[in-house]
């Protein structure tokens, strides 16, 4: 079950300090709001329908000092907890000695925003995926954010702050999860028609599960040679699928659209538009525009036979 109020349900030290700041500022604001609106209500009742002005009171040093000191304390308090938050969120783990401007050698995961999906590449292993980020728990990982087209905003409320993905500009963010689980991610900045369906998930594993996932992900599905799946594989190349999508171990190498090497192992289709199942995949292929209007995948008007063949092929990509 995804968290209903993820901002209040942090799963990393960063998200926890962001939640703490939010709750404290909310509390301070609520108190100020109560005082101000209380005074207004009091004035409304107390001085109602009086024909003469109430007694006017000019110049009270004590009150002036109180009105200055009070807000100054509030501002300093909020500044202090904000600075503490910034230091926590930006703290460099020891293995990343070179600071924010370190080159690609200190990046763990490269994330690129596209209209309307996220490309994910893992440094070292070279694994490429889409709309799912798998991480081991208890490690602070450096994510390098970029964009291919317009400005997107990368946000996993339970794990981290927001960070823009900007074309031609590199941004960095830390990703860390205390406990294994699935954490929802969103694009937090309007980026076009399907901004609402530009979701992703961060899946945190304990060490052994992460190693198993990585091992599976490094494998390549064998190209089928018989049956529906073989016909589907042939169709994939013959139609224009391979001009946008890549599947490792085949001639499909384009990265305009999500990499499909392990499509059948994913949880969702269309960056969260529908959950993954063979039936949903078939519905998607039959007309992606009906599910995600405006997405870059056209309706190929495939026949039932072709749909069955393509689903049979894509289903083996685990
Ligand atoms: Cu990408 Cu909104």
UniProtKB/TrEMBL annotation:
Q: Which GO terms describe its cellular component?
A: plasma membrane
User: Which residue intervals define the domain Cytochrome c in the entry?
Assistant: 227-318
**Which SUPFAM superfamilies does this one have?**
Cupredoxins (SSF49503), Cytochrome c (SSF46626), Cytochrome c oxidase subunit II-like, transmembrane region (SSF81464)
Please give the start and end residues of each transmembrane region.
Answer: 21-45, 65-87
Q: Which part of the chain is the Cytochrome oxidase subunit II copper A binding domain?
A: 104-216
One GO biological process term = ATP synthesis coupled electron transport
Tell me the Gene3D superfamilies matching this sequence.
1.10.287.90, Cupredoxins - blue copper proteins (2.60.40.420)
Q: Which keywords belong to this entry?
A: Copper, Electron transport, Heme, Iron, Membrane, Metal-binding, Respiratory chain, Translocase, Transmembrane, Transmembrane helix, Transport
Report the residue ranges that make up the Cytochrome oxidase subunit II transmembrane region profile domain in this protein: 1-93
What is its cofactor? Cu cation
Q: Which reaction does it catalyse?
A: 4 Fe(II)-[cytochrome c] + O2 + 8 H(+)(in) = 4 Fe(III)-[cytochrome c] + 2 H2O + 4 H(+)(out)
* Cofactor binding note: Binds a copper A center.
EC assignment: 7.1.1.9
Q: Which family does it belong to?
A: Belongs to the cytochrome c oxidase subunit 2 family.
What this protein is reported to do is described as: Subunits I and II form the functional core of the enzyme complex. Electrons originating in cytochrome c are transferred via heme a and Cu(A) to the binuclear center formed by heme a3 and Cu(B).
Protein name (record): Cytochrome c oxidase subunit 2
Q: Which organism is it from?
A: Blastopirellula marina
As recorded in Swiss-Prot or TrEMBL, the protein's gene is named: coxB
